[in-house]
Amino acid sequence: ILLKELKKYNSELLDKDRILAISKSDMLDDELKEEISKELPTDLPALFISSVAQQGLTELKDLIWKKLNE
User: Fold this and answer.
1) pTM for this structure?
2) What integer pLDDT is reported at residue 26 of this predicted model?
3) What is the spatial distance between Cα 12 and Cα 8, in angstroms, rounded to a whole number?
4) Dihedral through CA 33, CA 22, CA 3, CA 37, nearest 10?
C-alpha cells in the first residue's frame, strides 16, 4: 500500500533507500513481534520503535545516519 502511495505521489521516491520503522511497539509482546517479523520484506531494514517506551529510537537514528553516509 505504501509503495503504491509513493508511486502515485512521486515515482522517483521509489528509487531511494527505505527503512521500515514499526511504531507503537510497546503495545506488542515478543511473540507478536516475531510473527510480524516473518511478514516483513527482507529487502529493506526494519525495526520496532516506541517513543513512549523509548525503545529502538537510538537504533533508528543510527540506521538513518548510516544510510545517509553510505
Assistant:
1) 0.80
2) 95
3) 10
4) -20
Give the type of residue at 24: K
d(CA 69, CA 20): 18
The region, left, alpha or beta by phi > 0 then psi within -120 to 50, assigned to residue 52 is alpha
Closest among 50, 58, 6 to 26, alpha carbons compared:
50
CA 1, 30, 56, 15 torsion-angle sign: negative
- Predicted confidence (pLDDT) per residue in 34-62, tens digit: 999 999 999 999 999 999 999 999 999 99
Distance CA 21, CA 49 (A): 6
For residue 14 the three cell numbers come to 521509489
Sign of CA dihedral 54, 56, 62, 67: negative
